[in-house]
Structures are given as C-alpha cells and as structure tokens.
Amino acid sequence: xxxxxxxxxxxxxxxxALIGIGGLMVLVTLAGIFxxxxxxxxxxxxxxxxxxxxxxxxxxxYHIPGWSPGLHSTWPHAYSLAIGLFHALTGLSYLIASxxxxxxxxxxxxxLLYKKHGTRAWLVGLAFWAVVKVYAYxxxxxxxxxxxxxxxxxxxxxxxxxAPRPGRWFELYVAAVLVFATRYxxxxxxxxxxxxxxxxxxxxxxxxxxxxxSVFTLLVATAGFYFWLNEHHTGTFSGGARGxxxxxxxxxxxxxxxxxxxxxxxxxxxxxxxxxxxxxLAGLIFQLGMLGFVAQKLTHHPAGSVPRIAWGTPPLIALVxxxxxxxxxxxxxxxxxxxxxxxxxxxxxxxxxLFGLLGLLSWLTQxxxxxxxxxxxxxxxxxxxxxxxxxxxTFRVSRVVEIVSRAFVRVKD
Length: 413
Fold this sequence. Notes:
Helix content: over 70%
Strand content: under 5%
Order of helices and strands: HHHHHHHHHHHHHHHHH
Structural class: mainly alpha
Shape: globular
Number of helices: 17
C-alpha cells in the first residue's frame, strides 16, 4: 500500500519525485558518513584531499611534500580541483567540500535526466540508487557520472538533430575531457566519438563525420598533452603500475573478474562468496524473485495464447546508454588485463552497471503499459537496493535479530 501511495505521488509530481530520489540518496549517504569513523574515506580519498589542498595553497598539483613523484599523476586532477574550488568558495574543510562536490554533481546529473526524459525521468533516475555508495565516499565517481551522462546526452542529440548547432560539438569535447580528467579510463569516450565519425561516413552525413573526426583528433591531442605534463613533472605519464605489463596469471584474473561481475549483477549487496552472509543470500533470493516476476510479465499475452516477449524497439537514448556501458566494459576489461592499474572492485565496474540500468529503465519508460503497471514494483525494488546496498560488509542479519530481541526484552521488562 505504501509503495502504491509513493508511486502515485511520483506519477503526479515528477519533478518533486526526482528531487525526492536525490534527497533520499543524500540522507542515506549522510547516515553512512556520520556513522563511520573515517567518514567514508579511503586511501584514494586522502590522495584527492591532499591534491585539493595543494592546488588551493600553491596552485600546483605536482609538488606535495613527502610524496614520490609518480603519486602526483596517479589520480587525474579534475575531482581534486573541484574540491579545492568548493573549499575556496565556502571556506569549509576539504572533507566537507568533497561531499558537497558529490551532491552538486548528483543534482546536476538528475537535472540532465529531467531535460532528456521529462516527466518520466524519475523512473530512469532510480538506477542511481544502485550506486549510492559512491556518493557517500570522497571518490571521483559522482563527477565522473555527471560527465558521462552529459557526454551520452550530447551524443544522442548529435545523432537525432539534422543540423546540430556548433555548441553541441563544444559540449561533446568538454564532456569527454571532463570524463577523462576525472578518471583516466574515461578515454573510452574518445572511441565513441570515433564511432560517431564512422557512422557519419557510413550514412553519408559527411558534415557530421568530419566534425566528429575533428573532435576526436582534438581529444587525442588534449589527452596527449595532459599525459606529457604528467611525464614532465613526475617522470610517469599516469602513475603507479599503469605503464607496466601485468604478470597476473590468467586463471586468477578470470576468477576475480567472475566474482566481481557476479557482485555487479547482485545489486542489493556485495558478497565475497568466501563466507556465509545471510543478508546477501536474502538479497539474491529477492532479486531472483524480481527477475522471475519481470520475466512472467514480459512473456504474458493478454489474450492468454502462446506467451511471447514483446519488448518493442528500444529508443535511441537507450541504445546510447547501452553503448556507453558496453564500450566502457570492454575497454576496462582489456586495459585491466594488460596493466594492473586497479583492483577489481565494485567501484571500478559500477559505471557499466549504472549505464546498463539506465538503458533498461529508459527503454521501459517508452512503453506506456510497462510504465503504468510496473512503476510501483520498480520503485519498491530499487528502494530496497537503496537501503540495503550501503550497509557495511560486517553487517549481518543476526545483528538485526539481536538488536530487535534486546529492544523487545526491554519493552517487556
């Protein structure tokens, strides 16, 4: 009943619903930030904060006392510069400024969703509840996601507009540079720009083709200059082990990759599969039940005859989201196999999961019968994901039972 009431509110107040999606994410992340002693920071977070402080105090990100030269180019600088900017504007601590960057990036991302999807943007926005954890941490992903959404929407506009205005090409360039300067793996967007040029030549849209090729050339030049600066100041173009070949055995890599991929499919809770986790098992059962429900609905024929799957033709924006997810996934898989630049974790693969969900939900929103009948079900499912997925790895169902039992005993006494 509650889910139906909330779904009714979302349908009749789509703008407020989208604000509500962001507001609930802020509340959940703030709960995690205040609950954890380290306020949702990691070693990478400390590096971002140090770089932000150095940029604010000296105007340089290449000369931090006590750091080896290679560390300065390990993390792209866009996120740290954004933290430094928010610190300068507000006077707040660098840690608080980093959380504000995340929340402003979230607000800007939801605004872009509304511009693209209109009154049904809230249903597409539910995908962000699956990656709520990265918005709690001082990590670059919130800014990275904003850049990717901006890039995807601009790419979509260039495909559908007969004569794109010049500003579109500038947007495409800036969005791709932002993605790259936030996470180096963002260079995969350059490949999508090259694909756009190839599409233009193939369809005889020569103006589109040559402009896309020009943007691609400019992007490659920009990335080359950025790496040259890193090499000049630190002696390494991108820090760490990114310039060395991996000696990790293939079977070890594939086993780790499979475990991480299973966790990406298990939206409700990460599971290391080495020990029993009752909450993860319950989440797995719940998610499988949801998939079964969706499959039943998709194959149900109103006339009661032979079941059929009737997805219909996906909208172009859904295909763009899927393309971003697929190209990122393949690029990351290939580069990570060649160079051990990152651990395989939830954080590194979640962009593919996010854009896969965005593609699926934007596809579903185009089908009125799906939107009208399933919006409450989808809202309920992602609400469970929002509440459960951020829980710490040490959290267990037995702990909940223990807390409830103690409370019951106290009330009884």
